[in-house]
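All the exercises in this workshop are built on plain-text protein records. An example says more than a description, so a record of this kind follows:
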Amino acid sequence: MRRRFAFVWTLLAICVALALPASTVAGSRYRAVALWDECTTTGGLHGFGYAEQTIRATEMRRSGVNYFKFSTQAERLVAGRWTPVGGPMVEFSDRFPNSRASNSYTLFRHWDFDANSQFSYQRLVTKVQFRSDGGLIRTRTVIGTSC
């Protein structure tokens, strides 16, 4: 009975391991995480609300990354499609060596809604590019809460 029970549990563990994506099991060298994500329809500069995001990008050890590029875009839901509002807000991190040390950079974004926002949903979308001197290595996208 114990052998059968152990066999069933082993089989179940193998099935779960195969069902998970490899990035979940192994971990990724490139991470972009929302530490703070808020969207409200009151307050802000114009009185129609605002959206805020705090994003942390982290590269793990010798990933080949030398700097991060953040591109944040405010979007509005119009006729069932998310469309950009204004131009993207772009920021670069400081450069760092490709060494054994992990590096991270934290970005804060704030966007005040205007009078047109009272008729549609809005959100912030931040694309984090993990870059080396040779070009783009990986992109991660953090989509903010809509309101």
About this structure: The first helix runs from residue 2 to 19. Residues 75 and 81 are 9 Å apart (CA to CA). The helical segments are 2-19, 22-26. The radius of gyration is 21 Å.
